[in-house]
Structure formats: structure tokens, C-alpha cells
Write a structure and sequence with these properties.
The protein has 573 residues and is α/β, with parallel strands linked by helices. Among the domains are: 2-310, ABC transporter type 1, transmembrane domain (ABC transporter transmembrane region fold); 412-483, P-loop containing nucleotide triphosphate hydrolases (Rossmann fold, 3-Layer(aba) Sandwich), CATH 3.40.50.300. Helices cover 64% and strands 10% of the residues. The protein is built from 21 helices and twelve strands. It has helices at residues 12-46, 49-98, 101-107, 109-133, 136-151, 153-200, 202-207, 211-237, 239-263, 269-310, 371-376, 401-406, 422-426, 434-443, 447-453, 468-481, 498-509, 524-527, 547-553, 555-564, 566-572, and strands spanning 331-338, 348-355, 360-365, 386-391, 394-395, 408-411, 420-421, 458-459, 486-490, 516-520, 532-537, 540-545. The strands form three sheets. A six-stranded mixed sheet has the order 6-9-10-3-11-12. It has a four-stranded antiparallel sheet with strand order 2-1-4-5, with no helix packed on it. A hairpin with a 2-residue loop joins strand 4 (386-391) and strand 5. It is elongated.
Length: 573
Amino acid sequence: MRKLLKYLSDYKKECVLGPLFKLLEASFELFVPLVVAAIIDKGIAEGDHGYIARMCLILVFLGIIGLVCSITAQYFAAKAAVGFSARLRSALFKHITSLSYTELDTLGAPTLITRMSSDINQVQSGVNLTLRLFLRSPFVVFGAMIMAFTVDFDCALIFVAAIPVLALVVFGIMLFTMPMYKGVQKLLDRITTKTRDNITGVRVIRAFTAEDRETEGFTEENDILTNAQKAVGRISALLNPVTYVIINLAVIWLIQRGAIRVELGLLTQGKVVALYNYMSQILVELIKLANMIISISRAIACGRRISDIMDTNSSMENGTVMEGKNDSPAVEFRGASACYKGCAAAALEDISFSAQRGEKIGIIGGTGSGKTTLINLIPRFYDTASGEVLIDGINVRDYDRETLLDKIGIVPQSAALFKGTIRSNVGFGSEYTDADIISAIEAAQAKELIEEKGLDYEIEQGGSNLSGGQRQRLTIARALVKKPEILILDDSASALDLATDAALSKAIRELPFSPTVFVVSQRAASVMDADKIIVLDDGAAVGVGTHDELLEDCEIYREIYYSQFPEEDSNEE
């Protein structure tokens, strides 16, 4: 949690002025019981209405000054807390984007979303309350006790007895509930995961009529979270009644003791009222302090969770090479193997091949054969477990990350579109002219889309107002507009018909900047015209060659091909 305080560095003035004005407000508040005592002992007792009026004006003045100080303190505290959370959220987002896919897979998207939203909001509330009440409440408590000694030493000893007992209760409950709040936040991660899965997979759930099962699963997770919140809530709820009981017992003791001293003539009625008011102030402030401690306990638990993410470093070190060798293959795999974290078996084993500039490389294989894993090694989304991947003769580990990704255009399996216009989605990441964007869209076989809707057509989040084929073609256009040296199409034409797929393949072949193209597909038709086809099976390359060579030498490729073109199979027979 301490590591996060550096994000308050730009708000040092607010962190000083906020508590300072709260202390000023509290100081004026401590004079109120003395003014009330004077009104009772002098104004009312002597029937001096002028004196009463003057004292009431003083009370109004103290109230106005206190209000101004309170509003000023609230302003500075809110400015510091909101500014702190904004800086922290930006830093956390930047840190998350610097993590490799390995860390992102391990942490999980729901956990990161909770850290970015709920946890930071809790920390913001904790900072706000700390600046407003952390000094004010103890100041009023001990200030009221000191002022009680100025009124009557004997009765003030009751304050000395009550305050330690109250502090023991408050801080004891705080220490007990802090780990429980941390557990609640972990359960919140689980229910966020469940919610995200249900929302993103709603079509699959409906297709398999699994709504009842998912509802039961969500209800179960929700009940676990609810029970955990109830458990910590029951303990936290003890704060107010226990402090009320202790304070009211102290008030009873104070009134009884004060009545005796008034009867003996050692104390005035006004001073008894003043002592009662000081005890009431202590009660109010301790309730505030108790609620603040609950919020701070949550904030500390959430702050530690955020710190855990900030302490997670990428397993990939950034290289320094800015330029490759022009006389080397565009991409080369040398005995490359890959293994996902936590998996015993390798996803890829001993892959070796090279791709020259301008060549088209097809990657085909069954589901789970390692096709996506292979192409993820090229932009260094994952590092090889052994062997190496080279681009322009340089190991991808040695490249500056930005330089490496500038060379590559990637179209992932999932067509990811963002809320915004067609122009902003295709030109994502850089400023391109409309001519560049239109050219890329035409190459991606989506010309009719912009003719019908235009570049300013608003796309909903995830491209929900477009068809699957339209989404895929726009993501392909996004990769083409940057004119990459290496173009990776990861099963990005699965929603396209064969004619459109063929037209797309032809358009990519005719691109003036001649990229080296990697096409991942389960369609034999998509890779038949490739200069080289890599056939994967269970993480191993079981065939490398042209279409004709593989039909002769690779059984798995023949099975894939003839399962899709059975008429040719029968003709050969």
C-alpha cells in the first residue's frame, strides 16, 4: 500500500490543506460547549437576554466559520483523492499493457478489471476519508477530553477511563476484519469472472439451453460472496452499538457524578451540560472514526491487491535492436518449442522452417494442433521454451518491442472491433489518410460496406451491429493499412465464403508492398496457393512443403484436404 502513496506526490498541498482546515473546523467546534455553558450559567441564570443574544450570535459565527472550513477541507480532500485515483488507474493500466501474454493469462481479465474499477474506487474512498477524518476525529476526541479537564478535573477522569476502552474496541474490530475484507474482494473476482463468462458466452448458453445451469452456478457464487460479506458485516456492525453502549454508560456516570458535584456547589449546571456536550462530541467522532476505519480497512486490502499487480513484472525483457539484416529470411524458426505456464506438455516442439520475403506461408492442422501458438511466437506474444525465432536474421528477443511490432500486421482469431467509426477502427493506433483506409478496406474485400455505410458509420462495442464477415474484413483492413512487412492472418477468414476468401487471397498477393504472409486456416482452399505449407499435429510439424508435395507425402494433409474436397478424392480413385 505504501508504494501507491507516490501517486499522491502531485497533491502535497491538498494533503496538507485538507486536514488543516478540518482541524480548524474541529477547533471552532470545541468552543461551542463553553459558549452554551456561558449562556446557561450567566444568560439564563441571571435573566440577561442581551447576553444570551450576543452568545447566540457567537454560536452562529462559529457555525459559519466551521462550515466554510469544512467545505474547503472537503474540496482539497476530494481533489487529492480523485487525482490520486486517476493517476493510479492510469499507471495500473499502463503497467497491465506492458505485461506479456503469460502474465495476462495467469492473472485473468476479471481480476484485472476488478483491480481497475472496484479496488481503485475503494482506495479513493479510503484516501478521501483519511484526509478528512484521520486527524480530525482523534483531535476532537482528545481535544474534548482536554477541554473537559478545563471545565472540571474530577468529571474529566471519566473521559480518561472511557476513551481507552473505546479505542480497544475500535482497533480490535479493525484488525480482525481487515483480512476478511481481502477475502471478500477475492470472491468478487470470482463472481466477476462468472458474470463475464455468461455475458460473452450468452449465445452459446442459449444455443445449448444451459440458462438454468448457469443461473444456478451464478446464484451459488453470489451466495458465497453474500455470506462472506454478511460475516464481515456482522463483525463490523458491532462497532456502532458497542461504542454507543460504552459512551452512554460514560454519560450516565458523568451525569450522576455531575449532579452530586452540582448539589455540593462544586460545579454549575452549565458546566455539566458542557461536559455532556463534550461526551456527545466524542461519541459522534468515534462513530465517524469507526466507519472511517472500516473504509480504510477495505482500502488497505484493495491497495495491497493493486500493489500485487504493480509488483508483477513482465517475464519478457525488451531488446535494443532497431534494424534487421536485409540478406536474411524474413522469418525463420530454428528448433522452436513453446510451453504455456502451468502446462506439463509442450504446445509446440522443435519447429524449424524459413519464410522468404514476399512468400505466403500456410499453416494448417486440426483443432489444438498449435497453429495459433506458432504464429504468436513471431510478434513475441510468448517466448520460446527452447530454440529461437528470427526476423530478418535477428532473434525476436533482441528486438526493441515497438520496432518488432511495427514490422508485423496481425489479424487475431477473434475479430476485435472497438466502439467508434469505421475510420477509427481501421486506422487504429496511428493517423492514416482516408485514401489509405479506403485502399486497405478494398483490399480486404469490404468495399461495399463503406459504399453503403461510409467511413463515419458508428460501430458498437465488439462490432455487434455488423455481421461476422464484416467484422473479420474490417480487422483485416486494420492490419493492411499499416503496410506491414509481415502479415499474420490467424483463421481470419472463417466467416467468409470461398469466393470472397479467394478474392481476398488474390488481393493480398497483389499488394504493392509485398508482405510475407502467414495464413492460419483449417480450410485447405485458403492455403493451397501458398509457397510453403506447415502441417501441424499435436504441436509437431508433420509436413512442410507445397500443396502438391504434401498431397503425396503427408497423410494428415491428405485427410484434411480430401475431407473438404471429397469429389476429388472419388475422382482419383
